[in-house]
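Bumping my old thread because nobody answered last time. Still need a sequence for this structure:
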């Protein structure tokens, strides 16, 4: 064994020498040999490191980035994944709902009355522009061909986007039926799915143009009173829709009375004619310019007899009054409070004013899967971008063509479109790039001051850039290696930059400090060491100190990668690998650069300008640089301050005060830990200033709109389960978890109401149990049940529920009406699947824990009522995380604790020292969790990642002090003071540099970075205080003595 100068003569035979342990001796000698090699051949070592980085960087070509939240935050094996797969496979035609809200832009919200006609008229103008938007699908297909280098004849799945696309599409006559070409909207039966306050006015251009305040209030206050279909306006007091016979008719005489009123009204307001044009019946007004109620056109179409007429048809019905079932004309108006928020009443009107309007446009999903981008729908994305532009929002400033999106002078919009989350996530991250850059700049400046002197020769500017460059090499190498091994790159891996910055700079401080210590020791003894010998001694003493922290952190993260949460697993994998690489590059990049820097200073060459030589001066003889004189920064102040502070805190009085202070800190922290709760909302990722966040806040304050869900009934015998369907419907209508302002949409209840009507000819001969008139009536015969269900399904009455029923016999499934059962349709095979629609209440989905409890409660209840049935919403994918995140945090902390225990006891093999290191780390984490509660940070996937980062930093701050305490000699108090004197400045610099880096992102608009700032701020202050203050005080009391020994003369070596 080779023992350098400075090692005690009797260390080999003393009990202390035996306590070092064979493992540590082997490691120290190993690092010494590495230091000797890199110090002798620094250029070759650097070239090898750069080549390694380049080879690793080749993996970028194979790196996949996963940005879909459902792929990152949904626990592996969760029930929502199985349910989501079933829903996607069974109901592929799902909708893209685009929600919006608007308020007054010309006055503040307090003075706003959104029911003023000018606001409704302005929204009507914008809505007409929305419907007029046309997307050139042919150009999009051409762009995709170019991007993917495809041409005619190649596999081009995106060719489905050919043609022009608009919300309502262009009607075409196909075999006597009307089909819509280029139709983007999702449909409920034949109707486009949309909702807004314009529905109250039938989107009638004449009515909306001539609105006044009284007609607005008249229409809005009578909207919900309509129980049967009345397409005429509610904004005119002479409208037949106000007649009780038209609001709700139950007898033939009432229905006929309504028809007579409508005939007389339309004859004066808007007479129509129906003609055969191109084989199609077309109803139009005799004079559109004088048509005062365009609802009469719809009445004319419904009442025509197939021949040309110039008289208003006698009513709304296209069937004989005696034959038409009442359900054919039932009407379920959307609740006003879901369309107008902040409603206020007056003595005259129930709804006299409001603050906000809200609604949605729904598009049909036409998604294609792209390996790099995930599922995309370029037509819908572009349509939504243009609609948002009309609302004054430039959703993607980078997209082509550029759009001019000025805010409207009357209406201020907010919204939640299908593309909004992805846009805002990206904008938030891009908006924080400047802050990230600033953080790196701060670290470079700080390192330049702390790694060297205020001197043109002995400054640390070049080494500061090297310390930061190592972080870049780690990131490049890690991303490349993960590309080779196909580990996805998640959004939260951006936090690696800060983790590596903290750990890398900490390691650089330690190695630089050890190098300077050995240089000074050699000078004090009147001798000198060659550069390779200095690097060897630095690697021997500093390498083991850095290894303790790096090994602990890397193992903790790599073992933690076994978590079931994908984003957390990926992050732990990336973090573990990057820490190993960071440590490796400290030995193969920083140490060689340190050797080159030592050669430069020995030759009195200027830092960063090696071509210029300055007068020779010593390390501690700073002469100033640039515009700073040597008196500006003499150095040593921080070291003296930390040493004096430790001298005071290690006295009996200081120890008592220290233990009292930290007992109080720990008591408060433990209390907070018992109070912290788990919560996670996807909207937290949205910047505070975003139009999406504004929408969420408005919805919570004014609308209380909850989460839409479907209750899915997989393949089963629907006939045998009729009573179960009744029970599920009853549960949905009585549960406090459901928003009862929105009706539960049940195909079964609508069908049964139709089937049990007294004058229903289709079921007149069918038998029911217990009877047709009973509220819980069910069909007695299976054949009658499926025959009646299909009759209802294939006609106008059941048209809007075709998206909720899937027949087992494929030929039975229809897109339009059918006069008879299609060929090949076997009704006896029953239903393959069906579903109900409902909406969860906002109160039941307020916090993350509420959402998870609501989801699991509904699953249990519905499964108990109907075996195999389950509720589902796409949001459930995100809610699953809340159920397991606390368990995952505890599991990962336990893993980290075990790793810390093993590594610390292995590399600091003195139990009376190691046990206190573990205690300080544990207290640091517990206190950080506790104070997170007081700073309103909850347990989530994001904060869990940051807590794991904190474990690594907490180990750093305590382990360095413990390692130097073990190496020091004298009484316990002397050893504690010596440890702080030698390594305290490095630890303090690591604390302060990390704090400076995260302070910048504390002002971020992004939730991810704000939480990062809070958690990192807590850990660097709490763990730093435990490492620099509490641990020396404890060790000065119980750390034990270590007698000093004689040392070899400078340069002497012995062989053992």
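Sorry it took so long. Here it is:
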């Amino acid at each position: 064994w080779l023992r350098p100068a400075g090692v005690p003569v009797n260390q080999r035979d003393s009990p202390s020498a035996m306590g070092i342990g064979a493992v540590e001796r082997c490691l120290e000698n190993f690092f010494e040999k590495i230091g000797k090699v890199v110090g002798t051949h620094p250029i070759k070592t650097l070239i090898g490191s750069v080549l390694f980085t380049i080879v690793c960087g080749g993996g970028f070509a194979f790196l996949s980035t996963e940005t879909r939240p459902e792929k990152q935050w949904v626990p592996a094996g969760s029930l929502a994944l199985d349910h989501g797969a079933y829903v996607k496979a069974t109901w592929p035609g799902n909708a893209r709902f685009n929600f919006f809200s608007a308020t007054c832009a010309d006055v503040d919200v307090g003075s706003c009355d959104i029911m003023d006609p000018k606001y409704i008229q302005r929204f009507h103008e914008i809505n007409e522009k929305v419907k007029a938007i046309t997307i050139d699908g042919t150009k999009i297909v051409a762009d995709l061909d170019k991007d993917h280098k495809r041409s005619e004849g190649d596999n081009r799945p995106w060719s489905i986007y050919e043609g022009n696309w608009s919300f309502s599409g262009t009607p075409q006559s196909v075999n006597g039926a009307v089909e819509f070409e280029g139709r983007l909207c999702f449909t409920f039966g034949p109707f486009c799915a949309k909702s807004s306050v314009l529905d109250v006015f039938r989107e009638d251009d004449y009515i909306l143009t001539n609105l006044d305040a009284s007609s607005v209030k008249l229409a809005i206050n009578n909207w919900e009173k309509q129980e049967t279909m009345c397409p005429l306006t509610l904004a005119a007091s002479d409208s037949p829709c106000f007649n009780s016979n038209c609001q709700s008719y139950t007898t033939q005489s009432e229905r006929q009375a309504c028809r007579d009123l409508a005939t007389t009204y339309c004859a004066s307001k808007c007479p129509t004619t129906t003609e055969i044009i191109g084989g199609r019946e077309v109803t139009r007004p005799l004079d559109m310019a004088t048509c005062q109620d365009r609802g009469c056109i719809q009445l004319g179409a419904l009442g025509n007899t197939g021949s040309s007429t110039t008289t208003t048809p006698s009513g709304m019905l296209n069937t004989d009054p005696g034959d038409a079932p009442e359900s054919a004309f039932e009407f379920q108006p959307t609740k006003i409070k879901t369309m107008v928020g902040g409603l206020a009443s007056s003595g005259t009107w129930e709804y006299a004013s409001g603050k906000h309007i809200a609604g949605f446009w729904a598009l049909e999903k036409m998604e294609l899967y792209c390996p790099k981008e995930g599922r995309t729908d370029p037509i819908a994305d572009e349509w939504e971008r243009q609609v948002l532009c009309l609302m004054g929002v430039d959703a993607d400033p980078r997209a082509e063509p550029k759009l001019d999106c000025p805010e409207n002078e009357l209406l201020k919009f907010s919204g939640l479109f299908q593309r909004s989350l992805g846009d805002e996530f990206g904008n938030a991250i891009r908006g924080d790039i400047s802050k990230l850059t600033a953080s790196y700049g701060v670290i470079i400046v700080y390192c330049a001051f702390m790694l060297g002197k205020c001197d043109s020769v002995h400054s640390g500017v070049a080494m500061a850039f090297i310390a930061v460059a190592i972080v870049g090499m780690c990131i490049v190498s890690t991303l490349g290696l993960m590309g080779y091994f196909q580990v996805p790159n998640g959004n939260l891996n951006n936090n690696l930059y800060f983790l590596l910055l903290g750990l890398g700079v900490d390691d650089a401080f330690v190695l630089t400090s050890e190098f300077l210590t050995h240089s000074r020791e050699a000078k004090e003894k009147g001798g000198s060491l060659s550069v390779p010998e200095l690097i060897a001694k630095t690697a021997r003493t500093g390498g083991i100190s850095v290894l303790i922290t790096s090994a602990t952190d890397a193992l903790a993260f790599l073992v933690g990668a076994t978590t079931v949460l994908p984003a957390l697993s990926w992050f732990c994998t990336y973090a573990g690998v990057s820490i190993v690489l960071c440590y490796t590059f400290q030995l193969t990049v920083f140490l060689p650069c340190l050797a080159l820097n030592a050669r430069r200073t020995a030759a009195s060459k200027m830092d960063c300008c090696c071509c210029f030589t300055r007068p020779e001066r010593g390390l501690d003889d700073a002469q100033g640089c640039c515009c700073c004189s040597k008196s500006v920064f003499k150095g040593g102040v921080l070291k003296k301050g930390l040493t004096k502070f430790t001298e005071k805190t290690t006295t009996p009085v200081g120890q008592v005060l220290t233990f009292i202070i930290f007992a109080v800190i720990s008591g408060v922290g433990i209390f907070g830990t018992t109070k912290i709760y788990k919560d996670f909302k996807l909207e937290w990722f949205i910047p505070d200033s975003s139009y999406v966040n504004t929408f969420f806040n408005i919805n919570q304050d004014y609308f209380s709109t909850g989460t839409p869900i479907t209750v899915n009934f997989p393949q089963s015998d629907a006939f045998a389960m009729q009573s179960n369907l009744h029970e599920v419907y009853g549960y949905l209508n009585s549960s406090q978890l459901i928003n009862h302002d929105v009706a539960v949409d049940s195909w079964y209840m609508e069908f049964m109401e139709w089937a049990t009507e007294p004058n229903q000819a289709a079921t007149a001969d069918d038998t029911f149990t217990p009877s047709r008139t009973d509220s819980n009536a069910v069909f007695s015969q299976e054949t009658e049940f499926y025959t009646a269900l299909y009759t209802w399904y294939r006609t106008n009455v059941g048209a809007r529920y075709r998206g909720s029923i899937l027949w087992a016999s494929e030929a039975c499934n229809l897109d339009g009406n059918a006069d008879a059962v299609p060929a090949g349709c076997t009704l006896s095979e029953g239903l393959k699947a069906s579903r109900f629609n409902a909406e969860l209440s906002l109160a039941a989905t307020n916090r993350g824990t509420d959402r998870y409890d609501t989801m699991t409660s509904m699953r249990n209840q519905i499964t108990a009522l109907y075996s195999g049935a389950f509720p589902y919403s796409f949001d459930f994918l995100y809610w699953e995380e809340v159920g397991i995140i606390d368990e995952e945090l505890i599991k990962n902390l336990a893993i980290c604790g075990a790793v810390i225990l093993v590594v610390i006891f292995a590399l600091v093999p003195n139990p009376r020292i190691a046990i206190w290191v573990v205690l300080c780390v544990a207290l640091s984490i517990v206190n950080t969790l506790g104070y997170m509660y007081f700073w309103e940070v909850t347990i989530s996937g994001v904060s869990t990642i940051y807590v794991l980062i904190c474990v690594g930093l907490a180990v750093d701050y305590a382990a360095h002090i413990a390692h130097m305490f073990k190496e020091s000699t004298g009484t316990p108090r002397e050893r504690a003071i010596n440890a702080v004197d030698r390594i305290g400045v490095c630890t303090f610099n690591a604390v302060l540099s990390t704090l400076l880096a995260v302070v910048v992102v504390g002002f971020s608009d992004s939730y991810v970075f704000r939480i990062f700032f809070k958690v990192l701020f807590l850990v660097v202050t709490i763990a730093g205080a435990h490492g620099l203050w509490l641990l020396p005080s404890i060790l000065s009391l119980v750390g034990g003595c270590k007698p000093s020994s004689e040392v070899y003369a400078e340069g002497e070596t012995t062989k053992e």
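Residues 8 and 1046 are 6 Å apart (CA to CA). Let me know if any region looks off to you.
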